[in-house]
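Quick illustration, no need to memorize.
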Amino acid sequence: KNNLLLFLFFLLFSASINAQIEKVIVETYYISDTLDATDTIDGSIRALPAGSKTYRVYIDLKPGYKLAKIFGDANHAFKITSTANFFNNIDRPNEYFGYLAKKTHFSTNPTYMLDSWITLGLATSTYYGVLKPQDTTGTIRTAGWGGTAGIAGGILKNNDPAAGIPLTNEDGFLPIPGTVTFGSWIDNGFRTVAGRDTTVFGDTIIGSQFISNTAYLQQTSGVAGVIADSNQILVAQLTTQGIISFELNVDIIDTSTPPKHFIYVAKSSSADSYTINPYLTYPTTCGCTDNRYLEYSASFACGDSTYCHTLKVYGCTDTMACNYDPSANVLLSDFCCYPGYCNDRNIALVCPDISPYRLKQNHVGEDIYPNPVQNILSLQLSSSIDFTEVNYEIYDTYGRIIVQQDLGIISGNSLLQADLSGIPSGLYLFKVSVAGVSSIKKFIKN
């Protein structure tokens, strides 16, 4: 019984728990053109190819939470991949993370602004990274950013509508107020002991994937979104001609005292108890997200009703039980009765606790059936004397009244029926009051 209640509790509340991560946003930030490709990197062929797309990845948290860490561990790889190589400058300073970048380097090397990196909240050491529509400060780009070819009017001015707002209008950089301070930044698994980056985010390795079971980037105080109501936190900027994919694992902290940590992972592992959040895998996977169906899974980031085929029917699916229900497909062991082989025995005698037709011999008797119910819930009342006023109420698991009915005065044995076709599936409480005495029973609506 306890296992059943825990299972039902999970169904009711898992969505609210996962709501600490409301979604993950992949913004198409910029699409390069032939003018951008003129900005060679010390004459190298590693200039930014025309048609490259720059993406920014944001984790959208519920207000009141901070992102403390993105990581990989033995059971959950930290993955960022593309079908083509990622772009990075090779003549830039040794700054491998977004939060270390310097605005002052962009003017002399404009495509440095489009490098690939990971971060926690910051796009440079002095700017937050925000979605371009939320940027209210204009652009840091100037006409003097002409690159190595000295393009008149500057480069990075492509206005391809597939990239949304042009960088010449808004560029997703918001200044960090001088009053803001951060905790310590800690990284592991990216650099050698000499400080050279060993990944595709550095200035030496050309590649299309970053996969690690040890790497992490951590901010000890946590980082919240600069716009508190949306709380969207930049975690990566990726430039490539290919199609990107990623699997992220995160450590989230709340702002209460003492702070609490919540760890979410992209994929499941039998070796731990971390919570899976489907938004942390990209591209997202759609499927049946309606838990009334057998095909339901919490691992889907978006719902597609075409994947929902078989409605759940709760009941006893054990053929050895007296109350075996051949129409049920979800076992509720709490409803199975095992007094022995039933054969022709009267179920009202061998399973009195679950018999839908029993009549109590005391002052007032009541029962509800079927349980679980799909549409019509029946109420069986029996007594040797006239009833006084009879009424019933149906509550959800939050204690809210869903259905309420006054039945008036009823005499003797009575069968009453309630139409529940209009209420959603779930666990409910049925409260019936007769002659001032109340009885509460649980039932499941399929």
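DSSP finds two helices and 27 strands in the chain.
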